[in-house]
Amino acid sequence: MATSDQRSALGRARAGANFALIKYWGKADALLNVPAVGSISITLDALYTDTQVELDSTLARDELWLDGKRRDEDVAKISACLDLLRARARVTTRARVTTANNFPTGAGLASSASGYAALVRAAEAALELDLTPRERSIVARQGSGSAARSIFGGFVEMHAGVAPDGSDSFAEPLLEANEWPLEVVIAVTAKGEKEVGSRSGMMRSATSSPYYAAWVAGQPADLAAARTAIRARDFAALAELAEHNCLKMHAAALSARPPLVYWNGATVECLHTVQRLRAQGCPVFFTIDAGPQVKAVCAPGARSQVAAALRAVPGVQELLTSALGPGAESK
Ligand code: PMV
Q1: Cβ(154)–Cβ(175) under 8 Å?
Q2: What is the DSSP code string of 216-230?
Q3: How many Å apart are CA 114 and CA 326, to the nearest integer?
Q4: Is the CB of 101 within 6 Å of ligand 1?
Q5: Ligand 1 center to residue 19 CA distance, Å?
Q6: What are the tens digits of pLDDT across the range 185-201?
């Protein structure tokens, strides 16, 4: 345990981005950030956040440096997450947090997921805490729901939980990355930060979409079927389910008032391209989060064919590729 008069201590961590195959969309408790539905995701190895947390007793408040720029407007969110860990360590020292993504920030590529997972691991090291993976996941969830999943590698399930204090709302590993080494091609169709973040997008869908209740009610069946498909390495079943679940989430977003249209024209073209490839026998499926990028999940060996097809879609600005990767690690 760190002492309260400590002048400085350093922790460093790396966490991979993740995206959901069975989506999280909607909150049961906004304050504790408890999701309304469970979710299932994959953690990536090539898209990650590196974070350093330096406790510094000369600081009056926490400081955040993201991709080389000071971000005073985002400090309150990371301070809230750090406070949870400081309270455990009985330390009040403020921290300088230096963090960098090796991929575009805030464009629907899961930067908050890898960001908060790396923050929790780095702060845990700086504060000399020794949390269980489940405790890490619960703390990361309070930063960003999807971050609870980036604590783990490979295939991960997030439980919505039922406890009023959020104590059973955490992620758990389903399969390690090497147990089903799928690959991912991400078609970047727009750069820059998204217009409506997931937090307000979820709120708007929950309060105004006539489809939101149906979205929530259908999730347990999708989760159970996806769990079975993943354990059986049944790519065709997972492909059908993941696309269905993604389009249901977007149906709840599209039907909000005012509507949330996260897609652009190239997003839709990529979606058709992936469906055409699969109809021709190429094992690939798409998923799309709260942004215009298309994530194509490929069975081993299909990646180069998928990349070539998506590269040819007008409006695709860049392709990122990744294998599945490990959970958040301190360095
Ligand atoms: O973790 P958040 O608050 O950024 O929300 C993530 C929401 C989606 O990316 C759209 C879905 C998901 O399960 O990751």
Answers
A1: yes
A2: HHHHHHHHHHHHHHH
A3: 12
A4: no
A5: 8
A6: 999 999 876 678 899 99
